[in-house]
Design goal:
Mean pLDDT: 84
Structural class: alpha+beta
CATH class of the largest domain: Alpha Beta
Number of helices: 5
CATH superfamily of the largest domain: ACT domain
Order of helices and strands: EHEHHHEHE
Strand content: 5-15%
Helix content: 40-55%
CATH architecture of the largest domain: 2-Layer Sandwich
Number of domains: 2
């Protein structure tokens, strides 16, 4: 008989609220340089350069969109060649059965359709935004505040050092908890 395994260690988070993007950008870069693990950054709008400040690597979503578009293009070509030349050939005005210029609009439409729908689906899966998920972020974040969330992964997290860093950049308030979203 196996002994019961210890329960998973709970991870705590520290969130600091700021009133402008410049403080958020500066503290994110400095927190990363000082060895803090940045869990997430929330802002009411995209901030240019924030991905570099928090150390995010380049997204693979562009390549996924390209592959999905290529899949849509190949599907459109196969669909039209099959239906017009093999499955249901119709002689319309003596034109060839597989007239490529007539295929261009459908090829364009299916390329855009596949690329858009698959990209959005992958984006939702990558960010765990399921249909009925009940994720809630901090109140006021999407209106006018900016939030930096640090992960307290282990006992080496220095709360005093983090508090000094937050004070240096003028944090409006600091919250700690087990869940931030």
């Amino acid at each position: 008989m196996r002994a019961t395994e210890p329960s998973e260690k709970t991870v705590r988070y520290t969130a600091a609220f700021f009133d402008n993007e410049h403080d958020l950008m500066a503290i994110a870069a400095e927190a990363r340089l000082r060895g803090f693990e940045i869990q997430d950054v929330f802002s009411p709008y995209p901030i240019h350069g924030m991905d570099r400040a928090v150390g995010l690597e380049r997204s693979r979503l562009g390549w996924i969109a390209f592959a999905a578009g290529a899949l849509g293009l190949i599907s459109a070509i196969l669909l039209q060649v099959w239906t017009s030349a093999y499955d249901w050939p119709l002689n319309v005005g003596g034109k060839p059965f597989n007239s490529f210029p007539l295929f261009v609009p459908v090829m364009f439409e299916l390329t855009v359709l596949f690329s858009g729908l698959i990209s959005i689906g992958v984006l939702f899966m990558m960010n765990r935004l399921w249909i009925f998920s009940k994720k809630k972020i901090f109140e006021g974040v999407t209106d006018d505040q900016f939030v930096l969330v640090l992960k307290q992964a282990d006992a080496s997290f220095d709360t005093e050092k983090a508090a000094r860093l937050f004070k240096k950049y003028g944090a409006l308030k600091v919250m700690e908890g087990d869940k931030f979203v």
